[in-house]
Amino acid sequence: MPTMTYLQAISDAMREEMRADERVFVMGEDIGVFGGAFKVTDGFIEEFGEARVMDTPLAESGIVGTAIGAAVEGLRPIAEMQFSDFISCGFDQLVNVAGKMYYRQGLSVNITVRLPSGGGFSGGPFHSQNPEAWFMHSPGLKVVAPSTAEDAKGLLIKAIRDPNPVVYMEHKHLYRRVKGDVPEGSYETDFSARVAREGTDLVVIAYGAMVHTALEATADIDGASVEVLDLRSLVPLDVDAILASARKCSKVVIVDEANQMCAAGAQVAAVIAEHAWEDLDGPVVRVATPDVPIPFSPTLEQAVLPQVDDVREAVRELLEY
Amino acid sequence: MPQMGVSVAEGTVVEWKKQVGDWVEADEVIASISTDKIDTDVEAPAAGRLEEILVQVGETVEVGTVLAHIATDAKPGEAHSSEGDSSSSSSEGTSEAAAALESAGEAGELQGDTAADHGSSVQEGAGRRSGGKRYSPVVMRMAAEHDIDLSRIEGSGRGGRVRKQDVLAYLENGGGAASDAPMHIESPYKPDEPAAPKKRKPRFDRADEPAAPAPAPAGSAPLSRMRQSIGRAMVESLRTAATCTTIVEADMSRVDVARRALGVTYLPIIARATIETLREFAALNATLEGENLTTYDGVHLGIAVSLGEGGLIVPVIRDSHELSVEGLAARIKDLAVRARKNELTPDEVRGGSFTITNPGGYGSIIATPVINQPQVAILDTEAVVKRPVVITDELGNDSIAIRHMTYLCMSWDHRALDGALAARFLRALADRLEAWPVS
C-alpha cells in the first residue's frame, strides 16, 4: 500500500475517478496550466486535456453556477475554490441553487465543491477560515472534512459519486504534513464518524486538523484513557457514533478550529445534551476559535486557534472534575 | 402545620422530638406529623431554643397553624431566655418559626423582620453544610439504578465531587444495597426435587400430625393509621363500584427480550403499553364521581407500591404519556424508593386517572384487584411464566412452543363501562405487548 500525503491522496482520488468516468471533470482558478494554487491538480491538464481540466475566471459564482448546470446535464463536476474563504462569492449558487434544486425541481446536482480551508500558516483573515457551518445550516448540501490521507481519498471519491452537492473541506495545513498508507485504486469512505483512538474516561470529538491536535494533546495525559472521535462527515452527522462515545466516556470535550458561535461542535454539544444527558458526568466542554477573524501575525494566530496545550488543559480540567 | 402539598388541609402531630427548652438547629427535625396518607417530619425553620409547644401530640390542626415557638435570640448552652420572663414568647427575639412553613417548600426561610435579623446567619450556614452536595446526571442515574446512598461514597473529583468512576469502584467493591426484589419472577414453577426412592415418605403425612392446638393470640393492637385508611378506601370502593374483573392472556416473549435489552423490569414496558392503549380507549382513562364521568387527555398513571407489612401506597406519575419506557422505569423506581422512605408528598399520591398494581413479583398468577376510587379501572399484572402454548404459523400449522405468558387482569366499574369494552381494551393491550418492538 503506497504512502501518500493528504494532498496526494486528494489528487489520487480525482485522477482515479476521472480515469474511470468520463463525466468527471475539474474546474477552478489556475488549476489547469498552473496545476492549482496548492498543486493539487498538477499534471492533470497533460493527462486529461483542457476540456476536462478547466481554468476559469476569478468568479466563484460563475464556477459553482457552471458546475451546477453541467451536473444537471449529467456530468459530475469537481469545482475547486482556491481558498474556502472565497466561496462566499459563490454562496447564492451553492446554497440557493444547488442545495434546493432537488427539492424544487427534482433534479440531482451531482457536484463536489472542494474548499481548501483552515489556518495555522499565517494566511490572515481571508485565507484561513473554516466556513463549514454555513453549509451545515443549509439543507440540501452534504459537508465532509477528512483528517487522514486515507479518508481524504475515500471521502472525495464518495463525494464525487454522491448524487447530492457535497462540500468537501480539505485542510490546507494537513496537505503536506499528514502522510499515511492509502489503498490503491478506487474505494469509498462512508460519510460517518471514525474512532481515531479508543478510550473510556473522556472523549474528544473533532474533525479535520483538530483530530491531530486532539490526538497529540491526549497521547499521554496522566494515564487517562481518552477516546478521540473523528467526525469525518458533518452532514450527515453521525449522531449514533457521537452518542455511543459520549455514553461510554461520560465526559466530552469538543474541538472546533472554526469560530465558536454555531460551529459544528455546537451542534454536537446540543445532540449530547439532549440525548445523552443521563450519561454525563460533567459539563460538555468546547474548545474553539473565539469569534474573531484569524490574525495574520503568527503569534496572534497561535493565540486564537486551538493549540495542543489548550486542548490538553481542557481535557485535564474535565478529567479532574 | 406545614403545607405538604396543595391539597392538604390539616395534619396531626404524632410526636414531638424536641421538648420545651431544648436547643434546635435549623433544619433539625422537631416533630413528626401525619396527614391522610403521608407521615412526615417537621424541621426547624431556624436555630434557637424551643420555647413553647402549642399543638400537643394527637391534636389535628389546619395547615398554617403555629405548632411551636422557637426563640432565635437564644444561644446554645445559655440559660433559657424565657426563664423569669413568661411573656417572652411574644418578645422580639421569638419567631413564630413553624408558621414560616406555611409556604410550601420554603422551610427554613423565616417570615418577619425580627426572625430574619436574628436567625439568618446561623440558618444560612447550616443550610450550606447540610444540603450542598450536587451530583452529575450519570451519577444520579447509577445511584437510582443500584439504589445507592451517594453520601456513603467518597468522591475523588474536584472538591470531593462523586464521579462516575467513584460509583463504579463502589459497585465493584460490593457496595450498594442488595438489589431490589424483582418486580416479576421468572417462573413460580420449580424443577422437581431429584427422586430419592430410598426415603419415601407417606404422601399425606400431615394427616398423621396431631391436631393443632387452638391458636393463642400473640398480641393485639389497633390497626395502624395507614391500614385503617386503606381499609376504609377498599370497602368504600367495593360498596360504590360495580366491580367486575376481566382477564386476558398475553405472550410476553418479545417484551422479555426488549426489557432485557433495556435492563428494565416488565413493569415499565407494560406501563408504556397501557398508556398507549388508554389513549385509544378514553373511557377507561377516567374517573366517575356520582353520576359524573370525567375522561382525561393525558394519562396520570398510579402505580401501587407495597410498603411491606405497613401497607401500600399508590404514587401517581403525572402526564405519564410523555415518558418513554426508560423514563417510566426511572420514575417508578424513584417513586418506589421515596414511598418506602416515607418521602412522598400528598400531591404525588392523588389525581390518578388509571392504576396499575403489580403483585406478580410474589408469584401470583391471577388476582381481582379493587378499583382505586374514583377511577373506573385498575390493571393487575401478574407473574410472567413459561408455559407451553399452541402457536399457529402463517400457513395455519400448529405447534407447541414454550413462551413467556402472563395474565392481564383488570377490574373495572360496570357503572362506567361494559364488559365488551374492557375485553377490547385488554386485547388491544395484549396485542401491543405481543408486537412490542425488539431492538
What descriptors fit this protein?
heterodimer, A: alpha/beta, Rossmann fold, 2 domains, seven-stranded mixed sheet, 11 helices, 37% helix, 20% strand, B: 439 residues, OB fold (Dihydrolipoamide Acetyltransferase, E2P), Dihydrolipoamide Transferase, Chloramphenicol Acetyltransferase, four-stranded antiparallel sheet, 21% strand
Topology (SSEs and partners):
The complex is a heterodimer of chains A (321) and B (439).
Chain A: E1 3-5, H1 6-20, E2 24-28, H2 44-48, E3 53-55, H3 60-72, E4 76-80, H4 91-105, E5 112-117, H5 132-136, E6 142-144, H6 149-161, E7 166-171, E8 179-181, E9 194-197, E10 202-206, H7 209-217, E11 226-230, E12 233-235, H8 239-249, E13 252-259, H9 264-275, E14 285-289, H10 298-304, H11 308-320
Parallel strand pairs in A: 2-3, 2-4, 4-5, 5-7, 6-7, 10-11, 10-13, 13-14
Antiparallel strand pairs in A: 1-8, 6-12, 9-11
Chain B: E1 10-16, E2 23-24, E3 29-34, E4 39-43, E5 48-53, E6 60-62, E7 68-71, E8 94-95, H1 113-131, H2 137-146, H3 164-172, H4 225-240, E9 243-251, H5 253-262, H6 266-280, E10 286-289, E11 292-295, E12 301-303, E13 305-306, E14 312-313, E15 316-317, H7 325-340, E16 354-357, E17 377-381, E18 385-392, E19 398-413, H8 419-434
Parallel strand pairs in B: 12-16, 16-17
Antiparallel strand pairs in B: 1-3, 1-6, 2-5, 3-4, 5-7, 7-8, 9-19, 10-11, 12-15, 13-14, 17-19, 18-19
Helix pairs in contact in B: 6-7, 6-8
Strand order of the largest sheet of chain A: 3-2-4-5-7-6-12
Shape assignment of chain A: globular
**Count of DSSP E strands of chain A?**
14
Number of helices of chain B: 8
CATH homologous superfamily of the largest domain in chain A - what is it? Thiamin diphosphate (ThDP)-binding fold, Pyr/PP domains
* pLDDT averaged residue by residue of chain B: 78
Query: From N to C, what is the helix and strand string of chain A?
Result: EHEHEHEHEHEHEEEEHEEHEHEHH
Radius of gyration of chain B: 27 Å
Largest sheet descriptor of chain B: 7 strands, mixed
Order of helical and strand elements of chain B: EEEEEEEEHHHHEHHEEEEEEHEEEEH
Q: How would you sum up the major sheet of chain A?
A: 7 strands, mixed
Average of pLDDT of chain A: 97
Quaternary structure of the protein: heterodimer
Beta fraction of chain A: 15-25%
Head-to-tail CA distance between termini of chain A: 44 Å
How many domains of chain A? 2
Q: Which architecture name of the largest domain in chain B does CATH use? A: 2-Layer Sandwich
Bin the helical content of chain A: 25-40%
Stated plainly, the CATH topology of the largest domain in chain B is called Chloramphenicol Acetyltransferase
